[in-house]
Amino acid sequence: MATIDFTVSHKGRNYSLSLPSVTTFEELQAELEELTSVAPKNQKVLYKGKKATLNVEGTIGDAGIKSGVKVQLLGSTAEELGELRQVEGEFQRRERILRERASKSQPKLRSTGSASSSSIQFRFHSIEPLPHLPNPSGARELLEKLSNDPAIRHVMQIHHFSVGLLTELAPHEHPELLGLNVNAGQAIKLRLRTDAYDGFRLYKDVRRVLCHELTHNVWGDHDNNFKELNSKLNREVLEFERSVTNGTHTLSGLPSDIYQPSSEQEAYAQSYILGGSAPVEGTIDERRQLMLQAAMKRLQKDEEDLENSCGTSGPSATQSSSSS
Predict the structure, then answer these.
(1) Of 56, 190, 255, 263, which cross-links 26 as Cys (Cβ 3.0–4.6 Å)?
(2) What are the φ and ψ backbone dihedral angles of 9, each rounded to 5 degrees?
């Protein structure tokens, strides 16, 4: 009887297996549970970048697992899940305490009922990490940071954006996508994690994808209308953060993740006039405007690349069954 020799990787440890090609997926799961203590119901088996979707009658040979293949196992033991729930409970408790302290320290301000109802209506109404992926508490923390980002909340209020659910995309389930807007704001899904699940993508990169997907609340296709609104959102985010940096615009009680120039082009713009050779000698406002123009030029180039990784419209839309 033919055997298949392959390696299973789980949380940094490698296990060598030699099983008959007629081994069923259920039998493989039992073997993996014995090795790793991860129950079958908590197991996600990945190989060649795809998730195994075998039924209990399927064999590992039928699934295309061959000798030399490296299989990745995702999943937590019962003990780890218990610890995770305890950590998440403690995290939620600390968040509640911080919110209560913040509300008590806020000065009493007069506000109109319309402003209050607007802040309640135009926001992310819920967030949800994917519980079957590693470190869901870290994913939740990133989603909460995005949903509470002062600049994002600012543009959502201006444009009356309301999103039912902010959640994440699993790299192995949608390897071609960075973002997806379902039914014009019913849900926005973002790629938070690196391909190897060893960490999270840069915050500013994820937030740029979020601005792109928010634009799909209004425009479905990547046409000129979409590009114009998306460019406007990016500009408003940058302008808002620059005003916060300069102390001219604040949202009471909200932490701020201030954008800082990072590209060579922006660094150049701080000292030189674009297209010239002399240092900038204009006013502070003129230099700030020059930096903003340089930042927008960089974002426009990034946006062209992002369109190919958006599941709402464009090349990736035909590959995603979840898009509207």
Answers:
(1) 56
(2) -110, 130
Give the structural domain span for 237.
Answer: 113-259
Residue with tokens 């509470």: 148
| Mean pLDDT score, 142-149 | 94
Select from 212, 131, 138 the least CA-distant residue to 178.
212
| 162 and 279 part of one domain | no
- Each residue's pLDDT tens digit, 294-317: 655 665 656 665 666 676 665 444
Token representation of residue 169: 């995309």
Q: What are phi and psi of 3, to 5 degrees?
A: -120, 155
User: Any residues with CB less than 8 A from the CB of 150 and at least 6 apart, and which?
Assistant: 240, 244, 251, 254, 255, 256, 257
280, 287 Cβ separation under 8 angstroms:
yes
Q: Which tokens go with 19?
A: 């099983």
Examine the domain organization and report whether 240 and 275 are in the same domain.
no
- What are the residues facing 9 on neighbouring strands? 14, 72
Is 244 found in the same domain as 123? yes
Whether the model pTM is above 0.90? no
Closest Cα to residue 236, out of 157, 144, 318?
157
Q: Are residues 122 and 194 in the same domain?
A: yes
